[in-house]
Amino acid sequence: MSEHSLPRALAHVRARIEAAAAACGRDPSGICLVAVSKTKPVEAIREAYDAGQRVFGESYAQELVTKAEQLADLPDIEWHFIGHLQTNKAKLVARAAHVVHTIDSPALARELGKRVASAERAPLPVLIEVNVAAEPQKHGAAPVDLLEVMDAVRAQPSLVLRGLMTVPPDDLAAAAATFETLVSLRALHGGVAALPELSMGMTSDLEVAIRAGATIVRIGTAIFGARDYSV
Ligand SMILES: *Cc1c(COP(=O)(O)O)cnc(C)c1O
To answer: Is residue 71 classed as helix, strand or coil in its secondary structure?
Structure first.
């Protein structure tokens, strides 16, 4: 078996994004690739950085902070927080993240807004995570609560509402339906002007997400290889 080559895997993912965009007449430059590095060592992140990748995604607050400190010599690296955020970890994330994908309640919006304001930093772009298919094991706001969460984000001067995020079911057909529902929810709540970004698409459903209109895809396994434990 040949050794996992990270630069080659990254190039392959970029090619998948370009092919998927071309297949539906989209401009691939409108699709941001977040390399999901959770559970992977900082050496792997450096290797991806050296291959041109700048945007990385982490799911655990303390892991994000530790890695950001260890890679502080890479000035243009961009950290996206994509995991479930508990209010008691908002302070950590407010310090280290450049974008947060997972606001799912008014209380979390208020707490993160307060923590960003006191961190004396630039306003933080955020997305609201929606549990579109109402799966009990998943996080995210219910579609009926979306407007309330949007209002809570907008009430925080330190937060900038950028769009919606979702984690779909494993089944590809169900994932496609979930992505289309997220697009409809956006249309219902102000459209592209109000919510320009749609964060959807992982290793197994990247093409389906791009066809549905994803502007941010979050890819881990296809870049870094399988994770040591499932999360
Ligand atoms: C781990 C994770 C990903 C990456 O998933 P892969 O299947 O490894 O590409 C994307 N989004 C979220 C929210 C994740 O937790």
So the answer is: coil
Residue 11 lies in a domain: yes
CB atoms within 10 A of CB 106: 17
For the residues of 19-39, what is the DSSP string, one character each?
A: HHHHHTT--GGG-EEEEE-TT
Probe target for ligand 1 pocket from 16, 39, 56, 82, with the most ligand atoms within 8 Å of CB:
82
What's the pTM value of the predicted model, to 2 decimals? 0.96
Query: What is the Å distance from ligand 1's center to 118 Cα?
Result: 30
In terms of residue numbers, what domain contains 56? 6-224
pLDDT 10s digits, 181-224: 999 999 999 999 999 999 999 999 999 999 999 999 999 999 99
Instruction: Give pLDDT tens digits for 94-112.
Output: 999 999 999 999 999 999 9
Q: What is the CATH number of the domain that holds 199?
A: 3.20.20.10
Query: Which of 16, 59, 85 has most ligand 1 atoms within 8 Å of CB, for mutation?
Result: 59
